[in-house]
Design goal:
Elements lengths: L4 H25 L4 H9 L6 H8 L3 H13 L3 E6 L2 E9 L1 H22 L4 H15 L3 H6 L1
């Protein structure tokens, strides 16, 4: 049986969409839209709006809107970066950390609910496969 990479990509995207849809109410109760959640979850790893846009494959203008909303909701603070006064550095507030953690817990619970359909052995294999796919390779270096 042949497995097409595009089919796997589509199945993965469909799974992510189903999980997010199942968590939409939880996110809304926290005051978050789905894309706002992704931005909120990325702030610690990428504290600059341009970095968030790159990491999440979102247009910079969209990230600006999401950041503005998150600041207005009290989930993110924005300040001048002391190392480069031309840049704004983002940080999670205590409320933002709590909202992010609760949203991640809701996503994890829904994903775990779906993982329960898969044997423990297959879960270990899935984790191994995903890590292998994410590991850097020589061909990745050649593209850069």
């Amino acid at each position: 049986m042949s497995v097409d990479g595009a089919q796997l990509w589509t199945l993965n995207q469909r799974l992510l969409g189903v999980v997010l849809d199942a968590c939409a109410r939880d996110l809304a109760e926290l005051g978050l839209e789905t894309k706002e959640f992704f931005v909120l979850a990325e702030v610690e790893a990428s504290p600059y709006p341009a970095e968030i846009a790159t990491a999440l494959l979102l247009p910079k203008a969209s990230v600006t809107v999401y950041v503005r909303n998150l600041v207005a909701k009290g989930f993110v603070s924005r300040g001048i970066d002391e190392a480069d006064l031309r840049r704004h550095r983002l940080a999670l507030t205590a409320e933002g950390t709590q909202a992010r953690d609760r949203a991640l817990a809701a996503l994890a619970a829904e994903y775990d609910r779906r993982l329960a359909r898969v044997t423990p052995r297959d879960r270990v294999e899935l984790q191994r496969i995903l890590r292998a796919m994410l590991a850097p390779s020589a061909s990745d270096d050649a593209r850069e």
